[in-house]
Amino acid sequence: MTRQSKRYRKRKARHQELCRINAINRRLAIREDVNHLRSLGDIFVTEPKNAKKLQKCAKNTTVDKNGKMNRKKRFGKSIQNRCPGYSQAQIEQKFTQTGGQYIEVPKQYRASQYDHPSVIFIMKKLSARMYRLSDGTLVQRDWYSSFLPYCIDFERSAIDRSKCIKSFQQQYTKEKALIERIRTNQIRVCNSGIRIATA
Questions:
Q1: Which of 61, 72, 152, 158: CA 20 to 30 A from 23?
Q2: Over the stretch 137-152, which tens digit does the pLDDT of each residue have?
């Protein structure tokens, strides 16, 4: 058994205390967000929980174009900081207990791949945060992935293309206004693909 110095034990106890405080703050922040989401509406549509899938390391070792080994790690630290599984569990509990409706779309919904103008599914790289639909419209990936669950056919749990066509222009105008506000106020949104002009 290795001996631990008094200084080591003291720092270890301090680290454990900071981790405990951090965990409590995360839970409180998530519950605050959940209460805000509940105040916005009665129906919450989301994709199935996949935090465990995002946490997995890559099996194969790959090399980039400069001959450097790619990291096998994925989103472990990010998942720890944001707790997506806990967030969804809290949202489901809040909506079901307060008379709302919580809906998880099936895996074949594939909101991040669907292209409503051409009615086909297109695989995209994770790095492609802004991309063009088949009709040439430039959309922000995360916004479009949230727009498609908004157009759900509740009976079939599938994407309702007619609803997409009907409501796209109105929602797209709101998206462009939001992006313009982000650029005007120089709000930095990580991993969004929205370029901020620097002086």
A1: 72
A2: 888 888 888 898 888 8
Are 164 and 91 found together in one domain?
no
Q: What is the largest CA-CA distance in the chain?
A: 69
Enter the DSSP assignment of 138: E
The CA-atom distances, in angstroms, between 28 and each of 41, 80, 194 are 21, 15, 29
Instruction: Quote the CA–CA distance of 48 and 80 in Å, as a whole number.
Output: 18
Rounded to two decimals, the pTM is 0.75
Do both 118 and 85 map to the same domain? no
E strand or H helix that includes residue 149: helix 141-150
Residues 93, 128, single domain; the answer is: no
